[in-house]
Write a structure and sequence with these properties.
By secondary structure, this protein is mainly beta. It has helices at residues 17-33, 40-47, 58-61, 247-253; strands at 2-7, 66-70, 81-84, 90-96, 100-106, 112-119, 125-134, 137-146, 153-159, 162-170, 173-179, 185-192, 197-204, 207-215, 218-225, 232-236, 274-277, 283-289, 294-300, 307-314, 317-324, 330-335, 340-346, 349-357, 360-366, 373-380, 385-392, 398-405, 408-414. The longest helix is centred in the N-terminal third of the chain and has 17 residues, at 17-33.
């Protein structure tokens, strides 16, 4: 009488199945935690997507095989050719069907050791089920399903009658799905043999807990997801490359304005131009007209003593605004055009530059020297959320990258230790 043990996965070959299963389990745990994956640059270009609460397609594709076995004392009920060894002990029972033949192999105590299913016409093995026992008790089993192409196969591993993991080898790729004792999803793994690239995803209560990328056995990137499926922190090794991020192009587009392009008279009383006064008699503004339709309008503080800002005008249109500090030093310069660009100054050096266009504000921040960049960001003025932010080191290398995703912010950081 044949009975089903239920769903659980593992795979092996050979005679000492129990030891092989234990070793295989170690390897799967390693694949689940410590194996090769994509490098930092590839991580961002190929994998920097939030998979929050969405198990990858391999979970649906790698379905566990059904484990079928029989009790040793029921071996005699099988209808087929009984094969005895030289000592007259039952070794196997061969049951031939219309298209396939099944071989039931037994240990000396009639405990089932292996089931092999072959195609009658070609003799090709279609499926092999191996069993491991300890103290006359079935402890583990592995189901191997062979594909049409050589080397293509799927292992389903069972531990104590429960699915442990599914491992597929196909087209030079290893994919696996691991399960907890309660049947919940524990992990998935995708390993490319030719490149040595490996990706491991861990789950907790059905939600992604972490994603790790390896290459040639060395970890190069790790993503950690918050329990609520929100912000993600991702760590990366090696040079980080970001999609659609050309730093040199950004530098050219957002080059800071020349602070010396703003000329502010030191003595407000010497300025010759059209003056406007407030009702209390204090000076409000002065407009100085130049040649070729150019003019400059200076705004004066409430006391009517200091210039606080100014606007340069050409043919009736403002082309540049500037703001001054209490001491008269330039705080910012805004250059108007198709894209308004504002340069902020600190201690006479560029501190930041912002460019506004199509509802998106792009910004770069300089270090104290006013030359080397500290970071870059994009802000959506409609949603009032960061689109992405980039942090740079002294050599303009990316060390941190945060992007907004439908499931929250995802942050990638350089400097992951092995």
């Amino acid at each position: 009488m044949i009975r089903s043990l239920g769903m659980n996965t593992v795979s092996f070959s050979g005679t000492n199945l129990l030891e092989q299963f234990k070793e295989k389990q170690k390897n799967v745990n390693l694949t689940t935690d410590e194996k090769p994956r994509l490098e930092g640059a590839d991580v961002l270009t190929n994998y920097a997507k939030a998979w929050i609460n969405q198990p990858p397609s391999i979970v649906n594709e790698l379905k566990p095989a059904e484990l079928v076995t029989i009790k040793g004392d029921e071996a005699d009920t099988l209808q087929g050719e009984k094969v005895l060894n030289s000592n007259g002990v039952l070794e196997a029972i061969v049951v031939k069907g219309d298209s396939t033949t099944k071989e039931y192999h037994f240990f000396a105590d009639k405990q089932l050791s292996k089931i092999v299913e072959k195609e009658n016409e070609t003799g090709k093995v279609l499926k092999a089920v191996n069993f491991g026992t300890e103290n006359n008790k079935l402890t583990c089993a592995g189901v191997t399903e062979y594909g049409a192409n050589k080397g293509d196969e799927k292992y389903t591993a069972f531990d104590e009658g429960k699915v442990s993991f599914v491992l597929e080898t196909k087209f030079g790729q290893h994919r696996s799905v691991g399960f907890n004792e309660d049947g919940s999803l524990r992990s998935t793994s995708e390993y490319d043999v030719p490149s040595g690239a490996d990706k491991i995803t861990r789950y907790n209560d059905g939600k992604i807990e972490s994603i790790r990328y390896y290459r040639d056995g060395r970890i190069v990137s790790k993503s950690e997801y918050s329990p609520d499926g929100g912000e993600v922190v991702q760590y990366s090794k090696g040079k980080m490359l970001i999609p659609d991020f050309d730093l040199e192009k950004i530098k050219a587009e957002m080059a800071p304005a020349d602070i010396n392009s703003v000329k502010v008279p030191e003595n407000i009383e010497t300025i010759q131009g059209e003056k406007k006064f407030r009702s209390n008699g204090t000076l409000e503004s002065i407009e100085v007209k130049g040649e070729n339709g150019k003019s400059t309008e200076y705004k004066v503080d409430f006391e009517g003593k200091k210039i606080t800002m100014g606007t340069e005008i050409e043919n009736g249109k403002p082309v540049k605004n500037f703001g001054l500090d209490e001491d008269g030093s330039v705080l910012l310069i805004t250059e108007m055009g198709e894209k308004d660009k504002t340069t902020h100054f600190k201690d006479g050096k560029p501190h930041a530059v912002t460019v506004m266009a199509d509802g998106v504000q792009k910004s770069i921040e300089f270090r104290k020297d006013g030359k080397n960049l500290r970071g870059y960001s994009e802000w959506d003025t409609k949603t009032e959320r960061d689109i992405r932010t980039v942090e740079l080191d002294d050599n303009d290398e990316v060390i941190s990258y945060t992007k907004d995703t439908p499931d929250g912010y995802m942050t990638t950081k350089k400097g992951l230790s092995d």
